[in-house]
Design a protein that fits this description.
heterodimer, A: mainly alpha, 9 helices, 0% strand, B: alpha/beta, four-stranded antiparallel sheet, 8 helices, 10 strands, 32% helix, binds adenosine-5'-diphosphate, binds magnesium ion, AAA+_ATPase (chain B), ATP binding (chain B), ATP hydrolysis activity (chain B)
Chain lengths: 257, 253
């Protein structure tokens, strides 16, 4: 019986948490339509989340694209299908790996820093200070970050997809003996608009989730240094899990026959 | 005029405030004393709506401010009349010192030009004993006492009608404490502001208080004009102001 009660309590806790996150998301979005807005904060968030994430996005995707080419070549060789490397790399990167890898890197890089920053502000009473200075923390801190991440992630994903395909191309032409011209034509001919649209839409959703989790856990931080640590950890775990779950749902929506 | 009536607040099992009643007439300087952890900061935060009390009402000029909705225009108007110095300074560490001080003047309804805002910030910094060359530093580059004074400058920058100071002189040297005490006195006298100050420093109490309230056990234990503080006949208050280890207040809490 005790065992059942524990399960029941965890399920109720989870449902309550989902409800709180949903309310937080709705409140964040509602501030998009109500002034005042803080364009300067938005600009800073764009730089932080977008521009400064480019190196990590490039590095992650180029290696993955290269490894993907090697794997598909080796796997395809078993039934003489080596020739499909360009097509499968393109599909794999654009539909799945590009958005997911970039999403997870953003969860690691951006969610953690947003959560730690906001939690520290909360713990040191800076959030209270904002309120006493007639500034709504949801408008000043949350909305700019969530909006910037949602808008800039499709661009990061586009960059990641391209660099990932480049990684496959470099390995394919350099190590596996593909003709450069044929490799590129095969890639471009094979990709469809839906692939690209799904990739960028996933990016937007993942960006929204990553920044939202950072802000949500940061704002809810408990007191003290341990509170900041727990908020950061919780934010990164929640963002990663939500990104993977959302990825499944979006793939289902876009590609289920 | 600020009136607190029967304010109660618990955090989990901990009953911090158990019915605080307090009245601060307009233009007077009320000083709140009491041991650490007795809920003095919580009391101020209840008035500002940063913490919602479990019970009781808080009237500011007759209006119950605990009923104001977050983000409503009434609440914005209410907050615009306030200045608050937080116990830890609570400076924004992503902004420079002058941008912290001029925060209110750089955005929202009180927006001024950048040059004007900076000029006001530097003037306020001077009033708290800081030279203009700290204006472009970041809070992390300042000592704790300097941060406190920047926080003070920020609290008074928009010339509020009601000012709360949470331990304004803690961590300052005696001379600087004197400067800050005088400043608080001036703000009340010159600007006619209503002030509520939390302090442990008995020199400060004597320098700035019109009235004193002592919080103990979640309630206002004693309140009265400063002139009656020394012969109140209350053993708790007497022990507190003499700083004696013997008396009704336990030294292990
Ligand atoms: N946000 C909070 N969550 C939980 N406990 C709190 C919170 N704020 C204050 N407390 C607790 O309330 C008590 C009174 O705190 P405070 O008002 O800061 O004391 P002080 O009189 O020294 O200013 C303390 O025991 C503190 O731990
Ligand atoms: Mg305190």
């Amino acid at each position: 019986m005790k065992f059942l009660a524990t399960i029941g309590r965890s399920v109720l806790g989870l449902l309550a948490a989902i409800g709180r996150v949903a309310l937080f998301a709705v409140e964040t979005i509602s501030h998009l339509f109500r002034p005042p807005w803080y364009p300067r904060e938005f600009g800073a968030a764009l730089m932080q989340i977008g521009y400064f994430s480019l190196p990590v996005v490039g590095l992650t995707t180029i290696f993955t694209g290269g490894a993907l080419a090697l794997q598909i070549y080796a796997g395809g060789a078993r039934f003489s299908a080596e020739a499909v490397v360009p097509q499968i790399v393109a599909i794999g990167m654009v539909r799945e790996l590009g958005p997911v890898l970039v999403g997870l890197m953003i969860a690691a890089r951006v969610t953690s820093s947003i959560a730690a920053e906001i939690a520290t502000m909360k713990v040191t009473e800076q959030i209270d200070a904002l309120v006493t200075l007639s500034t709504n923390p949801m408008k000043y801190l949350t909305l700019p970050r969530v909006l910037a991440a949602t808008l800039v992630m499709p661009i990061l994903v586009a960059v990641g997809d391209t660099i990932g395909i480049m990684g496959g191309y470099l390995v394919g032409t350099g190590r596996l003996g593909f003709n450069p011209g044929t490799y590129l034509t095969n890639t471009i001919d094979f990709l469809e608009w839906l692939d690209i649209v799904s990739s960028l839409s996933k990016g937007a959703v993942f960006g929204f989730l990553a920044a939202l989790m950072g802000c949500y856990f940061g704002m809810g931080s408990a007191r003290g240094a341990a509170g900041v640590g727990a908020a950061t950890k919780g934010a990164v775990v929640a963002a990663s899990v939500l990104i993977l779950a959302a990825n499944f749902i979006l793939t289902e929506l876009f590609f289920a026959a | 005029m600020i009136e607190l009536r029967g304010i109660e607040k618990s955090f989990g099992p901990k009953n911090v405030l158990r019915g605080v009643d307090l009245t601060i007439p307009k233009g007077e300087s009320m000083v709140i004393i009491g041991g650490s952890g007795t809920g003095k900061s919580v009391t101020l935060k209840c008035v500002l709506g940063l913490i919602t009390p479990d019970k009781g009402e808080i009237l500011v000029d007759g209006q119950d401010v605990t009923k104001l909705r977050q983000g409503s225009s009434e609440r914005d108007a209410f907050l615009a009349r306030f200045g608050m110095l937080f116990q830890g300074g609570a400076l924004f560490d992503s902004l420079t010192v002058w941008q912290n001080v001029a925060f209110r003047l750089l955005r929202g309804t009180m927006k001024k030009t950048k040059a004007e805002a900076r000029e006001i910030a530097i003037e306020k910094l001077r009033r708290v004993g800081l030279t203009p060359d700290v204006a472009d530093l970041y809070p992390s580059e300042l000592s704790g006492g300097m941060q406190k004074r920047v926080g003070l400058a920020r609290a008074i920058a928009a010339e509020p009608e009601i000012i709360f100071f949470d331990e304004p002189t803690t961590g300052l040297d005696p001379i600087m404490s004197g400067v800050i005490n005088e400043l608080i006195r001036e703000i009340v006298v010159e600007m006619g502001a209503t002030a509520m100050t939390i302090t442990h420093d008995m020199t400060s109490v004597r320098a700035i208080a019109d009235k004193v309230a002592m919080i103990h056990g979640g309630k206002v234990r004693w309140t009265g004009p400063i002139s009656q503080m020394d012969n109140s006949g209350d053993p708790y208050l007497t022990q507190f102001i003499t700083g004696s280890a013997d008396g009704p207040i336990e030294s292990v809490r």
